[in-house]
Amino acid sequence: MLVDVEAVVQKNTRLSSDYNVVAIAAQDIAAQALPGQFVMVKPQASHDSLLRRPFSIFEVLRDNAGNLAGLSLLNKQIGVTTRALFNAKPGDSIRCLGPLGRPFSLPGSMTQAWMVAGGVGMAPFLGLAAQLRAQGVTTTLFYGGRHAGELFYLDAFRRLGVTLHLATDDGSVGDHGLVTLPLSRALQRTPPATSAQIYACGPTGMMHAVTKLASTHNRPVEVSLEQIMGCGLGGCYSCVVPVRSPGGMRYVRSCLDGPTFDGTRVVWDQIA
Question: Is there a contact between 119 and 202 (Cβ–Cβ < 8 Å)?
């Protein structure tokens, strides 16, 4: 059930000069949220348009007694809304609608999960890693950024038992180059019979490349698309995605049919 709340900011953790994590008291949304879903938010202090902006649910938060405390959002300041989130203070109000979208699929036959993240594409994976740990699935994160200072929450993933393979554009940590380098190496070394589900989120080019690699090695791949959304409810048709279907290519709304898709169904060269 969708919930629309005026959530109070509990905490704003600055990760760098551009990235932060905002914790908000949206318990009713957090109680229903599944890995891969998102919320539409608008800081009350923002003077942007009336439209909200989509954010993946980063963490479902609990207090020391284990009670639901809300949820958090991973943010990079780029425009008006993201700058307002970056500068949010405890006690500020944020309109928050969710949970929205189709979550990641979690096949019962899965014994391994490989998550591939680029930049803020890491946002849906902390919650997914927690869910996978609860199900006893061996999990690996391939995580890339421009430099070491843009790779966040590594210890949090390690605490969840996630194996990390890192890559940076400048070579400051991990492989020197794209995150697909360690992924390709791992695919070549892993027996084809291994049941490993691949999940990817990040720049469109990265997700396309991951899908190609997965297909070459006959691995299932699910991607979380970062389409621009005007409403999150399917009414504005601003987030359409071209997908393959038995009748040919058709357009679907990412906010309703996604944001998670079978990567092999996405018509990558037609994405705006």
Answer: yes
